[in-house]
């Protein structure tokens, strides 16, 4: 069984996610490649010629994407979320760097990430948050 270390709110006293990211830098090539895949996915959810509204989208990271939806106290399958898609990014540093980049550049998700982040986190996911709210899914 792998050792899972929490580096978010439940982290040991004095732990700094910024220090962790300095010691374990993101792979810029992976981050840029997956960012392009995410943007391509989002654009594919709109009619041709319609500019996406990125702020309608949620971006999150997790160690197991199917568990993350359950963490939001929902009993539905995560696949029921509108235009949901997950991407494997190889490391927590890649996931956190990409999540932060998308949050800042496109106002996706929550810029003030405060939930538990695990060192085993290797997924980033997106879904249309506005549509999910309209349909009572979140």
How would you portray this structure in words?
The chain is built from five helices and three strands. It has helices at 17-23, 28-44, 65-71, 92-106, 129-134; strands at 57-62, 85-88, 123-128. It has a three-stranded antiparallel beta sheet, with helices on both faces.
Task: Summarize the helices and strands and which ones pair or pack.
Layout: H1 17-23, H2 28-44, E1 57-62, H3 65-71, E2 85-88, H4 92-106, E3 123-128, H5 129-134
Antiparallel strand pairs: 1-3, 2-3
Helix pairs in contact: 2-4
Radius of gyration: 15 Å
Low-confidence stretches: none
User: Which range does the strand content fall in?
Assistant: 5-15%
Which class do the helix and strand fractions yield? Answer: alpha+beta
**Separation of termini?**
32 Å
Q: Which strands sit side by side, in order, in the main sheet?
A: 1-3-2
Q: Based on DSSP secondary structure assignment, what is the total number of beta strands?
A: 3
Question: What is the count of helical runs?
Answer: 5
Largest sheet: 3 strands, antiparallel
User: What percent of the residues sit in helical stretches (DSSP H or I)?
Assistant: 25-40%
Please provide the ordered H/E string of secondary-structure elements: HHEHEHEH
How much is the average pLDDT? 79
Overall shape: it is globular
What distinguishing features does this structure have?
alpha+beta, three-stranded antiparallel sheet, 5 helices
The gist of it:
With 138 residues, the protein is of the alpha+beta class.
């Amino acid at each position: 069984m792998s050792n899972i270390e929490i580096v978010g709110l439940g982290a040991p006293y004095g732990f700094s996610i910024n220090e962790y990211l300095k010691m374990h830098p993101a792979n810029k090539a992976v981050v840029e490649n997956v960012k392009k895949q995410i943007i391509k996915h989002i654009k594919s959810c709109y009619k041709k010629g319609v500019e996406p509204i990125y702020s309608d989208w949620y971006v999150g990271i997790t160690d197991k994407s199917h568990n993350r939806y359950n963490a939001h106290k929902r009993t539905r399958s995560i696949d029921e979320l509108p235009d949901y898609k997950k991407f494997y990014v190889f490391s927590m540093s890649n996931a956190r760097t990409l999540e932060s980049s998308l949050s800042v550049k496109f106002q996706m998700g929550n810029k003030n990430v405060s939930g538990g982040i695990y060192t085993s986190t290797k997924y980033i996911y997106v879904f249309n948050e506005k549509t999910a709210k309209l349909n009572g899914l979140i």
